[in-house]
Amino acid sequence: MRCLILLALGANLLGCAADAITDPEATLDDGEAAIHGVTTHPPATPRDLNTRPASDATGGSSNVSVWPTSSTMSGAIGEATPSVPPDQSLVKTPIGGGSGWFTVGFGLTGGYEVGQLTLRVQHSVANGATAGNVVVALLYDNVEIARSASIASTTAWTTSPVTFPRGAMSADIRDASRLQVRFYLNNSTAGGAGNIRVAWSDMDVWKLKPLIRGAITTGFSLPNYASVPASVNYAAYNIAWSDLEPDASGDQHFTGSNWAGPGWTRLENAVALATTSPSLHGIRLRVFAGPQAPRFIKRLAGCPATGSYCSSEGGVHVYDAHNGNNHCVPCFWQTNYMVQYEELMREIARRFDGRDGLHDVVDSACMSTFAEPFVRGHRDIATNDRLIQAGYTYDGDVRCHEAALDIHDADFIRTRTSIALNPWDEPCSPSRDPSCPSDHAYHRFVDTASFVLDEPYGRLEMGRKLIVQANHLNWALRCWGTGDSYSSDSCLVRNEAGPKGYQSTNIELLCSNGNSTCNTYSIIIGGVQQGLKGALMNVDPMDGWFFEISTSFNWGSVNVSDFNLRDATIEANVN
Fold this sequence. Notes:
Radius of gyration: 26 Å
Helix content: 10-25%
Number of domains: 2
Distance between the termini: 25 Å
Low-confidence stretches: 1-59, 68-83
Structural class: alpha/beta
CATH architecture of the largest domain: Alpha-Beta Barrel
Mean pLDDT: 84
Largest sheet: 8 strands, parallel, barrel
CATH class of the largest domain: Alpha Beta
Shape: globular
CATH topology of the largest domain: TIM Barrel
């Protein structure tokens, strides 16, 4: 994991490599709350060590002389932690024998993935030893996937916590029952005198939430479930940032108290419905930043109003050529913007990371017009020039994406993150870059794929906590042939491991007519038409696990039995 430290306004965003860590307090200015280190995520359940280590001969331990007299450590010493544990309850190295290690299980049930673990261990040195340490390692299917820093031991019994976030692990824990813990007991006393001892250990486990699967509606409202096929059981729920932090309430800070804004009631009601309704099994939250950020976010220090269109609202004038709309967006590449975004995410996590109804949250931090954060101004020269004029740089863009995934990984322990993939729009200036294209922007999907797949902030760090999706699927827009993962968003989704899925393109683009006649289930294909069915026919062979469909789609045109069969094949892709 990389622990994100947000420094004073105007400084850089720094990532610090770590193994097993506890997030540090952030240092912020201008009254910003310190937003790390706040407990907002109740663990699933604590468990004591309950599997006796195997003998030295089997490789389950080495140079360990005494085991608990009971079948479990907790059974040997009782649930209360004694100030001086009885000697027969200890696991320890032989006196004068140097260092050793042992491996145990925690008896966790299977059937769920793990988002984070916090382990506590009581330890000390004795019998002439004056210095030593304990190192804790996680093993999954007998392979070490994480290791803590050394924890100093003294002659006084000490209870030390060790936290393993997902980013500290080199692999996903997909089945908690296959997890083991190894304790390395390192005696650093001169000559190996005395020994090092462990009295007890327990562990809190944060379960990752189940995966969204199959057909899913998307929009600023939930569908009328009486009008959609019964197999549609999930919803991507859109909410404007300005409804969660309205200008009328001012700049709100993460303090542990509820924020004001009408969007919170809507979100609360949706999540509550997802835990009680037989029709709705889970929510994907898509917070629209960009044009729908509060005005004070667009007017943060260092972000000039760029373009006359945004002279009163603030922010940078961005033209959405895809839909023919003008927008004002914040300077998302600035540090003070990311401070604000993290406070918002922390507030969402505080309220909903422990709630099973909210399954994942879309990373929209660096968005311009869409909640597709690699899109900028597409090929609109004036938009690309205004972004450059406002201070945009590609390096700043990269830092925004790095910070965004760090924030989601650290703040949402049980809740997954979804990110939409596109060719990365990279505005440039011909006066500074002679190779800058004629539309004043590079459009490189290979940069997107490299960031998500190869850099430490994406899949390498987040694993199955990070959902990837391609957001414009129809019959024609799919991965053709043997395209590799760096060639297009749909090919990456097809080729890479899940979680992954698709969103349909705009309704009027579901067929080649390019108008409202495409708002139909239909098909044909040889003589054209297509429609939603044509897009659905691509999801299963391209290994999609879910498919987002607009709530404004004409559900009355659907062949329900055909739709339900296709939905079942998509759900069967989940593994």
